[in-house]
Design a protein that fits this description.
The chain is an alpha/beta fold. It has one domain: Dihydrofolate Reductase, subunit A, CATH 3.40.430.10. β3, α2 and β4 form a beta-alpha-beta unit. The radius of gyration is 15 Å and the shape is globular.
C-alpha cells in the first residue's frame, strides 16, 4: 500500500475540503499513478470530487462508518485490510484525507509526495515525513514550475511498515 498526496511547505494537504493549488502536472502524475488501481479514501475526500462521484477507472474504497452509494464501503481498519489484501499491495493507494493518512501511513511502504514550494493556507495536515524517523526520502525530482508554483516529486520509503 502506498500513500499519494501533494503538500505545501508546512505539510498542509487541503483547505475547506479541497485542494490548495491547481497543479496540472501533479494531477497528471496522480492520474497516471492511480489509473486502473485501488484508491482508499475517507468520506470527505469522496465528497470533494466533482459531484461527489468516485474516480473513474479505479476501484474506490471509502473508509467510513456508514455505507456510501456507488463505492465499496469499509467501516473500520479490519474490514479495510481484509479488502485490500485482495489486490497487489503496489496497486493500493491511500488518497486522503488527513485522518485516513494518519491512520494508514504506518502501513504504507511508500509515500509519493508532490512538494509545493509555497504556503497554501491549509486547514488539514499530514505528518512531516522529513522528520519522521520511520520514513526516508529515496528520490526527489528537480524543481519544476506548475501553474505558477515550483513543485518536486518525492518518494519516501517507510523503513518499518506495519503489517496488515
Amino acid at each position: 500500500m502506498k500513500a499519494i498526496f501533494h503538500a505545501d511547505k508546512n505539510w498542509g494537504i487541503g483547505k475547506s475540503n479541497g485542494l490548495m493549488f491547481s497543479l496540472p502536472k501533479d494531477m497528471r502524475f496522480f492520474r497516471a499513478a492511480t489509473l486502473g488501481k485501488v484508491v482508499v479514501m475517507g468520506r470527505n475526500t469522496l465528497r470533494s470530487f466533482p459531484h461527489g462521484a468516485p474516480l473513474k477507472d479505479r476501484t474506490n474504497i471509502v473508509l467510513c462508518p456508514e455505507d456510501v452509494a456507488g463505492v465499496l464501503t469499509v467501516h473500520n481498519l479490519e474490514e479495510l485490510f481484509a479488502e485490500v489484501k485482495k489486490y497487489p499491495a503496489e496497486d493500493v493507494f491511500v488518497i486522503g484525507g488527513a485522518s485516513v493518512y494518519r491512520a494508514l501511513l504506518p502501513y504504507c511502504t511508500e509515500a509519493l509526495v508532490t512538494k509545493v514550494d509555497a504556503e497554501g493556507g491549509a486547514d488539514v495536515f499530514v505528518p512531516d515525513l522529513d522528520v519522521d524517523r520511520d520514513f526516508e526520502l529515496i528520490s526527489e525530482s528537480a524543481p519544476e514550475e506548475d501553474n505558477g508554483y515550483f513543485i518536486r516529486f518525492c518518494t519516501y520509503r517507510n523503513l518499518s511498515p506495519k503489517p496488515y
